[in-house]
Amino acid sequence: MNNKLNSATTDYNQCQLVSLSLLRLFIGWHLLYEGMAKISNANWTSAAYLLDSKWIFSGLAKWMVTNPNVLGVVDTLNMWGLTIIGMSLMLGLFSRWGCFAGACLISLYYLSLIHISEPTRPRLI
To answer: CA 55 to CA 96: how far, in whole Å?
Structure first.
């Protein structure tokens, strides 16, 4: 086990290790900040974001907005998820789980707002 851990850290030079650590701290700070901003604002809701959904999850997002109980659960999970993931990355506690959860959360954000349009055809004169 120790040899595996040591070989993983020796593959990177000192500059790369510092850069990766700083990147983890900055991303953790951003997620923590966003989570705390949402928690501290009593009127915050994800309804407007969900209503703007356009692609794969648009039907699910609109269903969540129409059900106030589901929307409350989604809002709570979003606020506390961002906060806990940010703390995990900043403190280095369960950082692998935090990285995985953060990647999943950001992927859901991306997949809900992306809009793939029909390719445009060139006009014939």
So the answer is: 29
Lookup result for tokens 């999943």:
104
Helices (H), the chain: 2-10, 14-40, 47-51, 58-66, 68-91, 95-113
Query: Encoding tokens for residue 118?
Result: 């029909």
> What is the Rg, in whole angstroms, of the alpha carbon atoms belonging to the chain?
19
pLDDT digits (tens, 9 = 90+) for 93-123: 898 899 899 999 888 888 777 655 555 566 6
pLDDT digits (tens, 9 = 90+) for 41-98: 989 998 888 888 887 778 888 898 899 999 999 999 999 999 999 999 999 889 889 9
Q: How far apart are the first and last CA of the chain?
A: 68
The conformation of residue 55, written as its DSSP 8-state character, comes to S
Q: 112 CB contacts (<8 Å, ≥6 apart)?
A: 49, 50, 53, 54, 55, 56, 57, 58, 61
For the whole model, what pTM was predicted?
0.74
The token pair at 98 is: 């935090």
Pick the closest to residue 55 from 115, 119, 105, 117 (CA basis).
Answer: 115
